[in-house]
Amino acid sequence: MDKNQFFMTAEDVQADYGVDLITAETLRNGFIEATRHMHGTLLRSSFSNIIRDGMDFGVCVHLVNDDGTTDMVAITEGCTQFAFTHQHMTNMVLDEYGLENLGQGDTVICNDEWRGGIHFGDLNLFRVIHDADGKPAFVVSDAAHVFDIGGPVAGGFNTAAESMYEEGLRISPTLITSRDKPVRSMFNLLLENTRSPLHMLGDVRALLGTLRAGEDRVRALIDRYGIETVKGSARYALGLSERRMRQALLNTPDGDYSDEIFLDDDGLSTDPLKIKVEVRIRGAEAEIDFSGTDPQSLGSVKTGWQEAARAVVGPKVVLDPRHPMNGGAMRPFQVLMPPGSMVLSLPPASQSNHVEQGAKIARLMTRVMSQAFPEHAVADDSGTSGCVIMGGVDSRPGLEGTPYGGVLLMGGAWGATETSDGISFCQSSLFNCRSMIIEYSEKAMPVVIWEHGVLVDAAGAGEYRGGFAASYTYEALADAFITPIMDSSKFPAGGLAGGGPASMSFAALVRKDDRGQVHSFKGLLPLERMTPLFGAYDDEGVPDQVDGTWGNGTLLQTSKPTAYVLKAGELMRVFSASGGGYGDPLKRPAETVLYDVRNDFTTVAQAAEIYGVKIDPDRLTLDEAATASLRERLAAERGEGYEPALAHPREWPRTQAEFEAMRKRALGAPTAVEV
Amino acid sequence: MGINDRMIFLTPGKDEMYVTKTPVEGRTCPECGSDDIARYPIGWVRGPRMVVKCQRCYHSLEVQRPAVEDNWPPFRAATYDWDASPAEGG
Q: What pLDDT shows up at residue A571?
């Protein structure tokens, strides 16, 4: 194996791409800068909160090849999955519509999963940039999840949908501007079939303006450097990404790496759903085979073509995480998807809730690639988007009768690595969306968010612990249709190298206290104020993922209910799944465990039971002698193959009085500031 | 082929789903010399393709655009081969 087989010299760049290295690098970054302008334009001008706040979008520049295919040269920060799907979708849409049918100022719109899209809620737009001879040279594309796409459920996620006919508008490749004039019929189709024409018009105009901004930037590069230099540099940017990925594959031992993962259910039945993959790495290429995966489910948690592209997210995260993404990184991969399976469902299958499978695919592929490349291994992330879709009709003064909708994106957490704790409050690598700004959410929707925090003891234990997922408590100010999307309530994020599994998703309805307030402490609330909604509970209503039973005494039998009605004044608490730990918890520095205890991440009980660290519960100080003794005893008892117990809170206050006493006692101890 | 054939599908009933690989006769892998060659559908960087591939060393002999009879990808627009109208830039 040649560790530098794909290395390029400046002479290689000149010979292969016809551009000197400095210019090629300048223009590689110029393409990225063009997408950054697109990013800023869309962020500033879109209307839906999931776009301008959650960053659920993608903006790209593509090179048109001589054979009419395209390659995505650059994309910037946004929702990660678009950085993979738009490489495919641009090819599939333009292949069907015909590149030759698109002139200057024409824009095509499409939202179809079977043409490379993700789900109907995402609008994807494509605009061709022609050279001076009128020949297609580049394409700018963007995609964003809009407020609503019609159908029976606001917000575009209908987990219970049994067919695509229950998921809103399906838009095949269609002109939305012609010579820069809006195509009225297409606008009317969108505005008259969705719940908020105001948001739709604002978002579509923002998407169109974003393409214009992208075209302006690319044209500025062409004007300055000339078309051949710019195209050569685009080929260089793609070639560089390809070479880096091929080199990383070449440095990975040849072999067949496999694993499987389960979604909790499809929201209609309680049956788990298996996704299986085998990755065959040979030299500088890899075949990703989803054979052995379950057939497509009835509920909408499966996908149509997306996994052909999204399957590469895991390899990118593990093999070449730092280099900016473009289509070149996808060239070494071939993806096998059985038709009629979870990863390639067939029309008229429903797919609007694709997100949980997407998160699972990212986790599965990261896990498999971690086998192949253990020095870059990452323990399991949450495996859920951890989001809540809200929709309804507003009743706030001045907004009475106004349709509203939006997303509360909590996200989840990442797993730990051999060098660091997992990232808390973080979306899956598949999404990279932004956790919502509380004030924006409360302005966009009739909702009060009472709490946004972490649940103590929830992260998978380890020398490096997993990340902590977020929990939300929110109150509906008007009757709301709530669609929580929170898989990983039955199958936890696993640890690596002796690290432990993490707490899973669950939810409850919450009642305010006698003062009309909602207080939590370390993520805990008095159980007498919680009514189990979904997840694992014991017979007394205590959230218990170790000895409890899933669905025991809960109002719902799925973690992905569709359009649950939360009446005005009612509150819901959702806990997203956390990330797995890495390494032996007994090797975690005692001072670090103490820091976690003082910051309410870890209880004194977990510190002793799992980490073998003795901490004075009143003074929150470390007992070094007792810790050494305890760790020695635990190491002898555990032996080889020990796996920490599933992370979970050990004590829930039963009553308001118990809760107040717990908080009073803890607040009397030293605070994090004094660490 | 009927209008529905690549637009509307029955729900599959198998327990697990597999990609069908069709053996290719008369070809030898230039990398390892094996004659265990198969052709099957893949998702590739530029979309749906058919690959002709050695099943011993996984060397790709060819990556082809799918023929109509490959039915790949499963979905195809009914108008895929129609001429574009003037309103669509045709």
A: 98
The minimal CB distance from A293 to the residues B16, B48, B77 is found for: B16
A61 with A163: CB under 8 angstroms? no
Q: Give the Cα separation of A567 and A570 in Å (integer).
A: 5
* Degrees to nearest 5, angle at CA A607 with A605 and A613: 120
Contact (CB<8Å) B43/A305: yes
* A311, A288 Cβ separation under 8 angstroms: yes
Residues A349 and A297 sit within 8 Å (Cβ to Cβ): no
ipTM above 0.90, yes or no: yes
Partner-chain residue, chosen from A282, A296, A338, that has the shortest CB–CB distance to B18: A338
Helix, strand, or coil (residue A462): coil
- Report phi then psi at B73, rounded to 5: -70, 165
Structure tokens at A253: 């031992």
**Which range (A309-318, A416-425, A663-672) has the least confidence?**
A663-672
Residue A48, SS3? coil
Give the mean model confidence (pLDDT) for residues A26-54. 96
DSSP A551: T
Q: Alpha-carbon distance A150 to A167, whole Å?
A: 7
Q: How far apart are the first and last CA of chain B?
A: 26
Two tokens at A663?
């908080």
Rounded CA-CA distance A669/A601 in Å is 15
Q: What share of chain A in percent tops pLDDT 90?
A: 88
Q: Which A residues 580-619 touch B at CB under 8 Å?
A: none
Integer Cα distance of A143 and A171 in angstroms: 14
Quote the longest CA-to-CA distance of chain B.
Answer: 53
**Which three-class secondary structure string do you get for A100-143?**
HHCCCCCEEEECCHHHCCCCCCEEEEEEEEECCCCCEEEEEEEE
Q: Which residue out of B3, B45, B62 would a mutagenesis test of the A interface target, given it has the greatest number of A Cβ atoms within 10 Å?
A: B45
A285 CB-near residues (< 8 Å, 6+ apart): A246, A249, A332, A333, A334, B58, B60
3-state secondary structure of A315: helix
- How far, in Å, CA of A562 to CA of A548, rounded? 25
Chain A nearest-CA distance from B86, in A, is 9
A25 burial type by CB count under 10 A (0-12 exposed, 13-18 middle, 19+ buried):
middle
Name the DSSP letter for residue A673: G
Per the CB < 8 A criterion, the answer to whether A35 and A28 are in contact is: no
Report the SS3 class of residue A530: strand
For chain A, what are the domain ranges? 20-245, 588-674
Query: Which pair of structure tokens corresponds to residue A99?
Result: 């590149």
Pairing of strands A530-534, A273-282: unpaired
Contacts A–B by Cβ distance under 8 A: 129
Return the amino acid letter for A442.
E
